[in-house]
Design goal:
Elements: H1 13-19, E1 34-35, E2 40-43, E3 46-51, H2 60-69, H3 73-84, E4 90-91, H4 92-99, H5 103-115, E5 119-123, E6 126-129, H6 134-149, H7 151-171
Antiparallel strand pairs: 1-2, 2-3, 4-6, 5-6
Helix pairs in contact: 3-5, 6-7
């Protein structure tokens, strides 16, 4: 297929140069972002460079903390919500409304985070963020940063753990183990 050779109004010279290249090579106005010589990804429609990051796998200690403190993505959302406003006391109704969740999910998440030492019970059904140790506070700060930069990786840690539980449960019903 031939690329368009005519002038397109509203495009810069660089965008016209890309359009002039054959589409078969993965170029064109709607092609994937291109890596520039500065190590930045540039989108043709956006002249602002996006920093390229290489997602290094998180340390085993961090993964272990995520898996031991958070049993669902709802718990993660609740933790980060309360972490963002550490002085605020939250009741169940406020958390349900803010997270657009159910009372059951919020109650389970609050219970789990209280057990993990990440929330404190203020009485009368109110909780607030308060890590019981500096290590836990540091973990939550890092979790907040990691979730803002790589949310899918954090979600996969939590969901992957749930999938492992499900696999273990379903394996209990096997009459014999499949050959390896």
């Amino acid at each position: 297929m031939k690329s368009p050779q005519s002038f397109k109004p509203g495009l810069s010279g660089a965008e016209h140069a890309v359009l002039a290249q054959p589409y078969a090579h993965g170029t064109g106005l709607f092609a994937s972002p291109q890596k520039s010589s500065e190590g930045l990804i540039r989108h043709l429609s956006d002249s602002t460079p996006l920093p390229m990051t290489r997602a290094a796998p998180p340390e085993p200690d961090f993964v272990e903390m995520v898996e031991s403190c958070l049993d669902s993505v709802w718990s993660l959302d609740l933790l980060l919500l309360t972490h963002a406003q550490p002085k605020r006391q939250w009741n169940t109704a406020d958390l349900v409304a803010e997270l657009r969740s159910s009372e059951l999910v919020v109650t389970q998440s609050v219970r789990r985070l209280l057990e993990a030492g990440l929330l404190v019970d203020e009485g009368e059904g109110n909780v607030r963020y308060a890590a019981v140790s500096a290590d836990l506070a540091s973990f939550v700060d890092r979790l907040d940063h990691e979730y803002r930069t790589r949310p899918n990786q954090i979600r996969r840690m939590i969901v992957g753990r749930s999938n492992a539980k499900l696999t273990s449960f379903s394996d209990a019903f096997l009459l014999r183990k499949p050959p390896q």
